[in-house]
């Protein structure tokens, strides 16, 4: 079996696919999960970043790591550890830039380390453009259909529609009242 590698050129919005090797590499691989915020600080501000991770790549290679698996590094308000994504196309500035990410991937590859990025398309923040568009759109619109909007319970519709609790223990749940967009369930966007 072979593995397909996807190369994307963001400047031209083009992509190319090439064959690079064994599709089952991950079955035998040592994959090291990295939470960038706490892994290594490269700029001295006390928060882990891509520069810090890059500085540790030789060490990871010496340990025999075949791939690094990065938890979300996207722009985020960080209310849920980065899993509340505001923009999937941008690196959160606390971690660095897209150029820093490209350099990390390049340097890791040069050391024989593959890069896996945690893509969490079902986790967006209240700042994500799709959610903002959903709030600004009427019920039944395509923008609203991307999310689960449910009428609140109770006499005035101001109680949560379910008794579900967030495993993240974020206590910012609020119902969306009829026609109002100022009350939002921020736990599971």
Class from helix and strand fractions:
alpha/beta
CATH overall fold name of the largest domain: Transcription Regulator spoIIAA
Number of helices: 5
Q: Determine the mean pLDDT.
A: 80
Biggest sheet statistics: 3 strands, parallel
**Coarse shape:** elongated
What is the class of the largest domain in the CATH system? Alpha Beta
The CATH architecture assignment of the largest domain turns out to be 2-Layer Sandwich
| Rg estimate, integer Å | 20 Å
How many domain regions? 2
Low-confidence stretches: 1-10, 12-19, 169-175, 177-189
Number of strands: 7
Helix content: 10-25%
| Proportion of residues in extended strands | 15-25%
| N- and C-termini, Cα separation | 38 Å
Strand order of the largest sheet: 3-4-7
Order of helices and strands: EEHEHHEEEHEH
Write the layout of secondary structure elements.
Elements: E1 3-9, E2 14-21, H1 25-28, E3 31-34, H2 36-39, H3 50-62, E4 67-70, E5 74-75, E6 87-91, H4 98-110, E7 114-117, H5 129-136
Parallel strand pairs: 3-4, 4-7
Antiparallel strand pairs: 1-2, 5-6
Structural overview:
With 189 residues, this protein is an alpha/beta fold. It has helices at residues 25-28, 36-39, 50-62, 98-110, 129-136; strands spanning 3-9, 14-21, 31-34, 67-70, 74-75, 87-91, 114-117. It folds into 2 domains: 3-117, Transcription Regulator spoIIAA; 126-189, no CATH class. Strands 3-4-7 form a 3-stranded parallel sheet. A two-stranded antiparallel sheet has the order 1-2. A hairpin with a 4-residue loop joins β1 (3-9) and β2 (14-21). α3 packs parallel to α4. The longest helix has 13 residues, at 50-62. It is elongated. Residues 1-10, 12-19, 169-175 and 177-189 have low confidence and may be disordered.
């Amino acid at each position: 079996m072979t593995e397909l590698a996807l190369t994307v050129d963001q400047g031209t919005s083009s992509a190319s696919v090439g064959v690079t090797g064994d599709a089952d590499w991950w079955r035998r691989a040592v994959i090291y999960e990295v939470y960038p915020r706490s892994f290594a600080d490269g700029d001295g501000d006390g928060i882990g970043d891509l520069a810090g991770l890059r500085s540790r790549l030789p060490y990871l290679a010496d340990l025999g790591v075949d791939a690094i698996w990065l938890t979300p590094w996207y722009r985020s308000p960080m209310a849920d550890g980065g899993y509340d994504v505001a923009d999937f196309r941008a690196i959160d500035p606390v971690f660095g830039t897209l150029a820093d990410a490209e350099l990390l991937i390049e340097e890791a590859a040069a050391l024989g380390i593959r890069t896996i990025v945690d893509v969490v398309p079902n986790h967006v923040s209240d700042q994500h453009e799709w959610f903002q568009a959903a709030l600004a759109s009427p019920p039944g619109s395509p923008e609203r259909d991307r999310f689960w909007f449910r009428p609140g319970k109770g006499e005035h519709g101001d109680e949560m529609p379910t008794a579900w609790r967030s495993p993240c223990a974020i206590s910012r749940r609020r119902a969306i009242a009829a026609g109002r967009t100022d009350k939002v369930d921020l736990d599971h966007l």
